[in-house]
Amino acid sequence: MSTTQRDVDHALAYPEPPASPLWHRHGAKARPLTPAQQRRNRALLDIAQRKPRTRA
Hints:
The mean pLDDT is about 80. It is built from 1 helix and no strands. It has one helix at about 35-50.
């Protein structure tokens, strides 16, 4: 099967550029949440899911 000019996908003609160095996280990792923070987040999420959405 021969390919014509229309069959070529020009988006794939070149390799993807390397990821930005800003996307890589260096240094200390984030501290895990304490059980109290986890409970608070769960309670806030529960409230947010029950509340009707308001229009902005």
